[in-house]
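=== How it folds ===
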Amino acid sequence: MSSLSLASIFAGGCRSFGAPVTALRTLASTHTYLFNKHQNNNSLAWFSLSSRKGTFSYASSGAEVTCTTTSSSANGYLDYDRLLPCPSHNRPPRVEHLVVLEEGPVLDYICKALNLPHLFVADLIHFGAVHYALVCPQPPPTATPEQVSLFKKFTAPSVLKKRASIKGKTVREAQKTFRITHVDQFLEAGSYLRVHVHPKRFPRCYEIDWKSRIIAVTESYVVLDKPAGTSVGGTTDNIEESCATFATRALGLPTPLKTTHQIDNCTEGCVVLARTKEYCSVFHGKIREKKVKKLYLALAASPVPVGVITHYMRPVNIAPRIVSEEFIKGWNLCQLEVLECKKVPWPDAITEETYSVEDCGWPSKDYAYECKINLLTGRTHQIRAQLAACGAPLVGDSMYMPAAIAEIASPGVNPFGKFQKQCTSEEDQSLATAEWVLQHGKEPSVAIGLQACQISWDDGKHIYNAGSPWWRRLT
């Protein structure tokens, strides 16, 4: 069998580190949920999800797996170097869902169940990529009779009443998942685990001079000029590679910064990070009371009319976000105000390459249009979806620009656009909506033409501005 390093497995050709591990076996998996009883008989794989035809399990080759020690980098904060070097591209998702048959520490359990090295699993826990529930969740609709039988076995009242940890809880409450934060956390038999073996990575975090991105530091909060290609407060499977974590380290703060609001990973600009739980609650209150005002700069592919633009957004919490110009009962109001729109040169090839701006196939790239926008309602992807619906998608927006191009080529393909075709039944409407969703592309990997250029609150008592947007920096 060939010998592989963790770097070659998870970083795709980056420098090697640590002792080699041996690939013991390959577990078959598919896009669907699978049932698998692991060989150690101490656990059950409830189902396994992977977008590759094969998922890999690894164990040490007898010698102790070693890693380089944590060291201090030039900018003063600690390097985290077990899941490093960070791969330049994310690996296909691999999520393992497990039911515990034998109690014990979480680290030992996962290592045995998935044949993964101890240090790597410890890093997954550090990254926040491992979640648990006291009771396994309801199996998916695609579950086999055997999977359903297992669920019933572990949630039978005669079994649950013997577990002191869930006394006083409903089954639904016991199925709530929590992030595991300690490698020695004890697991009861019957507990459920979700392990993100390939967490989403953010290589941009390691390229940024974070101190230079700090706009303001006060006793209560920090204002950061967030770089594109980063997550404000982390993701379901990665809380390590986030703006909050790296800004905390750059400032040498003893307590981690806390997120108060979000902007998309592909968007840059002003975000407020709270230094205390108390101020986090205070700022959330200001947002609820609409005391926080946000201005954006958007680089659109076509001109946008000045004034208020209104749409209604489908209340489905997945991307892409679908909007309609006409009122639809139950859909959420989306409003933004375009304060100005000016013609500017389309970013040149060097600028686009520097900021990893994707070529989405827009037919005319002589000019773009920089718009200043006052966001009146704060919906996810609102500016991106609304401007695309106006035929002016953002430069580099690989999710919404393909749909805008498709609508230009085939008016009527958008069932909620100006040239929408009347559907005769709910089934026809559902099919048209599903086809429209398919016209959209994937989420951008790094930057799009969008910056949160200013944030203010308390009637302008506090005002903070971001630096120049990426499309101006090399001109």
Summary: The longest helix spans residues 426-438. DSSP finds 13 helices and 22 strands in the chain.
